Amino acid sequence: MSASFVNLLPMAIVAFGAMVCIATEPFVADKNKQKVLPWVASAFLVLSAISFVFVKVDAAPLFGFFEMGALRMVLSLAVLLCAFLGIGGLQVTLAREKYPAGEPYGLALLATVGVLIMVQSVDFIPLFVGMELAAYPIYGLVGLRRKDRNANEATFKYFVTGAVFSVVFLYGMSLIYGATGTTHFGGKVLAGRELLYSAGVLLSSFALLFKAGAAPIHFWVADVYSGASVAVTGFMAAVVKVGALAALGALWMRSGVEKLAPVMIVVAILSIVIGSLSGIAQKSIRRIIAFSAVMNAGFMVLGLVSKDLSAMYYFLVTYALGSAGALAAISAFSGKNDEKENLDDIRGQGRRRPLEGIAAVVCLASLAGLPPLSGFLAKFVLFSGVVSSGFVALAAFGFVFSIVAIYYYLRVAISIFAPAEKTDDAKNENALSSSTYFLLRLGVTVTSITLVCLALKPILFQVKTF
Q1: What single DSSP character describes residue 123?
Q2: Rounded (to 5) percent helix, strand, coil in the chain
Q3: Which keywords has UniProt assigned to this entry (predicted)?
């Protein structure tokens, strides 16, 4: 079994697409930037997805840095679909605001490359490169609205806290290198350096938990999500979380530090409680999804303590698709500068845009864990896995709070199709051509169908190593 460079083809295609978008952007007329560049970016995402046909899942690790198995392939495809949704949402948002530039599409593709690297990494060096490659373009995407005070504040907070936790990750990595003499995951610990190794794994894990938005290091999530555009929020909530939790799962499985399980349990409990209860009082959909991200990070960390991580990764895929799909659909009727994205403003918007409305409701119902969607099955297998690992009380605790969280998901879904008075918004938004909405509608339709299909044929297989 030999290593295969073909396994790098999907991320290479997306990276080339990012370069094409950035290099051609100055030569496209301002009025055509939102008409041409989203299609170019989407075409490269589709080509990248097709290239997985050539991937060799049983190949040896490439330089000891990258691995590609069936689970990593599924996670990568989920990342590409979420990125496609992000591009569709960005196109509608930027066209509506007559944004005079097209660099956001290149930035979104670069961030996608970074997350694809994180998913395939089995070494701390490429993982760190992937984390930074994902983070820097997102700083730019969060701050797209340069004259918006909330966007500037969100960018500043995200950049500063992101820099701090990058340092934390590097420090943890250096401790692990000192304990094992290698930067590979799961290196053999030298005699007498077990404590040093555990400290390194703990620090590195906390840096990844920061990226995932887990408590108690979730303080940036609500402000950053509400400062970014709705489309960018959906992209962050899905794509970045897949990369962070995929890397955390790989680190957890290979490090063999079961004694850190109590720390993870505390993180899971805090995330579930804070996310569930804080989301109830919110009216801004971006803040609701922000606290949903905190709560679901807790559920996924809970999955880490179970013996089989397949349930956690299944949950991760359904959560990422549900979040990205719901926010991409809502970006279609959130108005200029996303000023109409709270529960009162979106009343009845699903009646005017039924396809986007139905897609948003399907995604929200999956996030809420309602049958027959895949979100229900994901929570069922996650809690079953926790019970079979001996944590019955913990599973019961998570189940109770998942019922509490249903309330705020349903509030959004009900508002979308609630009766509303006629306004002039429809006249203003119809100024956009139907082709501007095509990518978004295609993305949310595919995502909704995928969430249904994943319930019929779940991607559950035993994860022995990752």
Answers
A1: B
A2: 75, 0, 25
A3: Cell membrane, Membrane, NAD, Quinone, Translocase, Transmembrane, Transmembrane helix, Transport, Ubiquinone
Of 364, 405, 370, 413, the residue nearest 278 (C-alpha): 405
Q: What angle do CA 346, 317, 124 make, to 5 degrees?
A: 120
58 φ, ψ (degrees, to nearest 5): -100, 15
Residue-range definition of the domain harbouring residue 291: 5-420+434-461
The residue length of the chain stands at: 466
Question: Which spans in 97-193 are helix H?
Answer: 103-120, 124-142, 149-180
Domain count of the fold of the chain: 1
Helix axes 438-456, 310-331, angle to 10 degrees: 150
The DSSP result for 296-353, as a single string, is HHHHHHHHHTSS-THHHHHHHHHHHHHHHHHHHHHHTTS-GGGTT-BTTTTTTHHHHS
Name which of 346, 329, 432 is nearest 94 in CA terms. Answer: 432
Is there a domain that residue 429 lies in? no
Number of Cβ within a 10 Å radius of residue 47: 16
Question: 132 and 177 in contact (C-beta within 8 Å)?
Answer: no
424 CB-near residues (< 8 Å, 6+ apart):
none
Q: Round to whole Å and give the CA distance between 129 and 217.
A: 22
Phi-psi sector, 460: left (phi>0), alpha (psi -120 to 50), beta: beta
The sign of the CA dihedral 133, 136, 142, 147 is: negative
Alpha-carbon gap, residue 7 to 57, rounded angstroms? 8
> What pLDDT is recorded for position 423?
58
Peptide bond into 372 cis (omega under 30): yes
Structure confidence at residue 237 (pLDDT)? 87
In terms of Cα–Cα distance, which of 344, 337, 238 is closest to 296? 238
Q: Let me know if 326 is exposed, middle or buried by CB neighbors in 10 A (0-12, 13-18, 19+).
A: buried
Is residue 296 domain-resident?
Answer: yes
Q: Are 238 and 320 in contact (CB under 8 A)?
A: yes
Mean local confidence (pLDDT), 184-194: 89
**Residue 366, in any domain of the structure:** yes
Residue 166 in contact with residue 159, Cβ under 8 Å? no
Which sign does the torsion angle of CA 402, 404, 407, 412 carry? negative
Task: Report residue 466's pLDDT band, with 50, 70 and 90 as the boundaries.
Answer: low
In angstroms, the CA 430 to CA 437 distance is 11
Cα 456-457-460 angle, rounded to 5 deg: 130
Contacts 24+ apart (CB under 8 A), 420-425: 420/347, 420/348, 420/349, 420/351, 425/335, 425/340
The pLDDT of residue 430 is above 70? no
